[in-house]
Specification:
alpha/beta; five-stranded parallel sheet; 18 helices; 33% helix; 17% strand
Amino acid sequence: MGNPKAFLTIHRQEAGYRPIHDRIHDFGEVEQTLNSKDRRTQASRCMDCGVPFCHWACPLGNKPPEWNDALYKGDYELAYRLLNSTNDFPEFTGRICPALCEKACVLNLIEHEPTTNREDEAAITEMAFQENFIRIATPERNGKKVAVIGAGPAGLVAANRLNRKGYAVTVFEKNENAGGLLRYGIPNFKLNKAIIDRRLRVLEQEGIEFRYGQDIDLKALPEGFDAYVVATGTPTARDLNIPGRELKGVHPALDILAQQNRILAGMEFKKDELVSARGKDVLVIGGGDTGSDCIGTAHRQGCKSVTQIEIMPKPPVGPEDPNNPWPNFPRTFKTTSSHEEGCTRRWNINSLEFIGKDGKLTGVKVQEIAWKPNPDGGRPIMEPAGKPEIIKCELVLLAMGFLKPELPAFGKNVFVAGDAATGASLVVRAMAGGRKAAEDVDKYLK
């Protein structure tokens, strides 16, 4: 490393977020960036460990010691080449990845100040676009055709890898544009959609064909292709079928998230089609990242208040998780930028009934519960621990995850990638699945 003792004298410095009073009035990205000098200084903190647990923890097998060293030395082009060799789209993961690599960093074990890998890879990629280090490839065609069904992160990676190997790739996407949950699930304040469009222009110039508005029947795949990659994700959200579910004002999270992103892209909706939090008390059911995205969206739409409830216990507070120790990812209490903007958070809360008047939601009857060990093993037993109460709300957003799809039996030339294969998971894991599918297709067709 260029500065092997930097970690002893330089502390972790994050770019941080825009001020709350500023950011809640728009959908611009909330995360800021360091200047190039401070960014290179942060890269110098990487210790080039003999056993790089960051590399082990990353589903893509990224090599932070190598590209952090190049970044520290100011060689942005080399840094990008090293980063891009394992990560097809580091501008996505550099913004939204939970950074498993950082939690596995030795500096996280010792000082709880890991290297800023996620921010570093975002900065490297932005510089690569700015300085034209990203050049259009012209692969030599091998005469074989591959269809990719679904243009989410897994499908895009599979298409990119196969195109680079010389296959003629056609991507079929049911929506009006590519990106999957990157475009229709993640709010613009975390990932500006211009970042996706910028990469799509590169993929199109390199020869990938995109066909939009194509809702493909997986039992009747398009003809004329030598192999197929099914990367349709997990389109079905987990529902909450309790009394009152039919009331107006109860929506899956993606109803508001996808619609808001489409509005920002210029699409118009009729008044009775809008899912809006303006002037309303909002209840988000589900404590994960999707729930957090709903909170931030509700604030920007002008909600009156936001409450988030979770049926599971509150995670342990602190940098360490005794049940999932380093170098594994700690399942600890997390406060996102959206939580910082204002939210009442409660755990061990079970939803019993949606309450309404004249067909419209007015509240949700809930009850505090406790989890008891199951004497037979397996899932703990849920028991009532408090009296039922009503949380007043006019809008409920269900953010309880997604169901793994049931896929038909496929032939030998069909390969499943991403969430469609594993169930809902991280974007970085979906991208790794897309890369694996491309490798499998290539082996099969050879």
